[in-house]
TrEMBL record:
InterPro entries: 6-PGluconate_DH-like_C_sf, 6PGD_dom2, Mannitol_DH, Mannitol_DH/Oxidoreductase, Mannitol_DH_C, Mannitol_DH_N, NAD(P)-bd_dom_sf. This is Mannitol dehydrogenase family protein. GO terms for molecular function: oxidoreductase activity, acting on the CH-OH group of donors, NAD or NADP as acceptor. Keywords: Oxidoreductase. The keyword Oxidoreductase applies. Residues 271-416 form the Mannitol dehydrogenase C-terminal domain. It holds the Pfam family Mannitol_dh. It comes from Aurantiacibacter zhengii. It comes from the Bacteria.
Length: 454
């Protein structure tokens, strides 16, 4: 037996389920990249709004890479369970906010129709850093963009403009500093090349607020799904598992209506910057350190890595001594308390958050997570030993002789190692004209520190 609208009444009484009429709820949000994170985060907040009586905010998910999520959720009419785990306790509820999942490349006409519908007010995104198709200098890679969401959005916006409909709020929920600003600039570049008049309409009618999202959502293992099936008495192929903590900070700059997410824990603010900077440099920065250094130390999960005394010391140093001093905290932010909470979250053994999952796509992540902190300290004549240690672990990882490297730049990174060798790899990666050149330029001392660890 499988989870579906017809089997909801057979679930155990302790499992909460949607308290609203899903069939009468219009689809008001189209979400690109409907992976586990979206289902445990934005869809969870939206489901809470629907349960509170708000209408018109059902979600149409769009899979950009494969049909896997569509195959998991569509036979279940979009229903799935979310289980919050902490220590030995677990709490499961059914999320009903997702109505359907479409697949880019297969269902393009239907995706455009959903976006162009008068019912739609928001398009949101968790497509990962590489899904924005940026070149090394941050500009749009038009060739790659042609295979992403840009043509679909452009066609839908053109239809809305022609029909006299209002613009959309385009809500990036990816781990990019200034994610809304970046999305707006990239989409504007696409439109200006292909339809200058539509670019003007987009600038006038649409908005791209910045956001910060935070919730640890490990990939669901087969054993997790099997154990859940035993507990529920039925299979849920789209189940997600997460921690109790969740944070969503959104810039108050919407083009039209929106759900009252703030009634369920989200923060609507005038400036997201302090929150996103703390998350990127402290949480994500520490996660990446634990991933590469933890894998080299023989660990599999985050909770194992943070229990390693040496890695715990490096993590504390990165968060408190290196990242935190570079952040101008908001009025209600306590960065020391934030670091304490992060360590506690990392240590949660119920999550089984795989280090190899965090290690994916490092070339797209470490500029925001590490290099900006390095640059800030360099301006003050200071070095960051913890981040440099993590940087050496990443360089060992992308050399490709320890484990498979999942990264859009894997071939370029391996080629750099081949041509530069141990003595030249730091400069080849981070020096002027390097693959990941940034505002941080490694000094002779930096190069010596990292090279000694390779």
């Amino acid at each position: 037996m499988r989870l579906s609208p017809d089997t909801l009444d057979r679930l155990p009484d302790a499992v909460a389920r949607p308290g609203y009429n899903r069939d009468k709820t219009a689809i008001g949000i189209i979400h690109f990249g409907i992976g586990a994170f979206h289902r445990a985060h934005q869809a969870w907040y939206t489901d809470a709004c629907l349960n509170a009586g708000e209408g018109g905010w059902a979600i149409c998910g769009v899979s950009m890479r494969s049909a896997t999520v569509a195959e998991q959720l569509n036979p279940q009419s979009g229903l799935y369970t979310l289980t919050q785990r902490s220590g030995e306790s677990a709490e499961t509820r059914v999320i009903g906010a997702v109505r359907e999942v479409l697949v880019a490349g297969q269902d393009n006409d239907a995706i455009v129709a959903r976006l162009a519908s008068p019912d739609c007010h928001i398009a949101s995104f968790t497509v990962t850093e590489k899904g924005y198709c940026r070149q090394a200098d941050g500009s749009l890679d038009f060739e790659r963009a042609g295979e992403g969401f840009y043509p679909l959005l452009a066609e839908a916006l053109a239809q809305r403009a022609e029909a006299g409909l209002p613009g959309l709020t385009l809500l990036s929920c990816d781990n990019l500093s200034g994610n809304g600003r970046i999305l707006g600039e990239l989409l504007r570049a696409w439109l200006e090349r292909n339809d200058a008049q539509l670019a003007e309409w987009f600038a006038r009618e649409c908005s791209t607020p910045d956001t910060m999202v935070d919730r640890i959502v490990p990939a669901s293992a087969a054993t997790d799904l099997d154990d859940l099936a035993d507990a529920l008495g039925m299979r849920d192929e789209g189940a997600v598992f997460t921690e109790p903590f969740s944070q969503w900070v959104i810039e108050d700059r919407f083009a039209g209506p929106r759900p009252s997410w703030e009634n369920h824990g989200a923060q609507i603010v005038t400036d997201v910057t302090p929150y996103e900077t703390a998350k990127l440099r402290m949480l994500n920065g520490a996660h990446s350190l634990l991933a590469y250094s933890g894998l080299d130390a023989g660990h599999t999960y985050v909770h194992e890595a943070i229990a390693d005394a040496e890695l715990r010391e490096l993590t504390d140093s990165l968060m408190r001594e290196e990242a935190a001093p570079t952040i101008t905290a908001g009025a209600d932010q306590d960065l020391s308390a934030y670091a304490d909470a992060l360590v506690a979250r990392f240590a949660n053994p119920a999550l089984n958050h795989q280090l190899i999952q965090i290690a994916m796509d490092g070339s797209q992540k470490i500029p925001q997570r590490w290099l900006e902190t390095l640059a800030a300290h360099q301006r003050d004549g200071q070095q960051c030993p913890a981040i440099l240690t993590a940087l050496a672990a990443w360089l060992r990882h992308v050399r490709g002789d320890r484990r498979e490297v999942e990264d859009p730049m894997a071939q370029e990174l391996a080629a750099a190692w081949e041509s530069a060798g141990t003595e030249g790899i730091v400069e080849a990666m981070f020096g002027p004209g390097g693959l990941l050149a940034s505002h941080w330029q490694p000094t002779p001392s930096d190069r010596a520190f990292v090279t000694a660890l390779l």
